[in-house]
Amino acid sequence: MHDYFIFEPLSTPEFCKLGQCPEPFDRQTWRIAKGQPMGEHHPSKVRLDMDKRHAGLVVPDLVFNNSHLHISTRRLRDLLERESGASIEFLPVAIHDHKGRVANEDCYIANVLGTRDCVDRSRSEFKESALKPGQFSQLRKLQLDPERVDPEARFFRIQDMPAVVIIRGDLRAVLDKEGMTGARYIAMGEKCFLV
Q1: How far apart are CA 122 and CA 44, in angstroms?
Q2: Confidence class of residue 28 from pLDDT cuts 50, 70 and 90?
Q3: C-alpha angle with apex 122: 116 to 126, nearest 5 degrees?
Q4: What is the 3 state secondary structure string of 97-126?
Q5: CA 20 to 30 Å from 123, out of 38, 93, 135, 174?
Q6: How far, CA to CA in Å, does 85 sit from each of 46, 79, 81, 161, 186?
Q7: What is the β-pairing status of strands 161-168 and 4-9?
Q8: pLDDT at 179
Q9: Close Cβ partners of 133 (under 8 Å, ≥ 6 residues apart)
């Protein structure tokens, strides 16, 4: 079996962090968190501002944000399109710095479409949502069931917590080889705290 990791943005002092998504776009991001297509719900121009409470200015390939989105540069977008084998809707956004100037106008929300039912609940640590039975409201440790993981899947969301994106070890190696920045990888069985 392959190695799998949770694919999350990395927070560092030098990398920028993005604040809240602007309205009315923010009211539609639930679609992305569930792996549903945005289609016509995505405005033609979305401006995302750096969080002024955080001094970092460097725009990494995967950008940390308060909305739990996977925001990528064009470089990461191109690599995921070419290598992931996943169905991904790339939604264009522009990142502006603390003074309102364009820092990178060629970025994208990587909306991985659909989910996969492959979590081993007996070996994972989570809190189940009171509002959405069958869904996690918190994840503290994740294990996948090797019998239920599609052997072709390299980049996908889990059904129990669709905001969580999984990357297979060989795709992670490609990202590392290409020098992609801004990602942290949480191994299966590693302690974490995702909400």
Answers
A1: 43
A2: confident
A3: 75
A4: CCCCCEEEEEEEEEEECCCECCECHHHCEE
A5: 174
A6: 26, 10, 7, 21, 21
A7: antiparallel
A8: 97
A9: none
pLDDT band, residue 4 (cuts 50/70/90) = very high
How far apart are the C-alpha atoms of 26 and 41, rounded to whole Å? Answer: 11
Residue-wise pLDDT tens digits, 127-139: 999 998 899 999 9
DSSP-assigned letters across all residues of the chain: ---EEEEEEPP-SSB-EE-PPPTTGGGGHHHHHTT---GGGS-S--EEEBPTTS---B--SEEEETT---EEEHHHHHHHHHHS-S-EEEEEEEEE-TTS-EEEEEEEEEEE-S-B--B-GGG-EEEE-SSSTTSEEEEEE--B-TTTS-TT-SEEEETTEEEEEEEEHHHHHHHHHTT--SEEEEETT----B-
CB 86 within 8 A of CB 43: no
pLDDT at residue 128, as a whole number: 94
Residue count of the chain: 195
- 63, burial (CB in 10 Å: exposed 0-12, middle 13-18, buried 19+): buried
State percent of the chain over pLDDT 70: 99
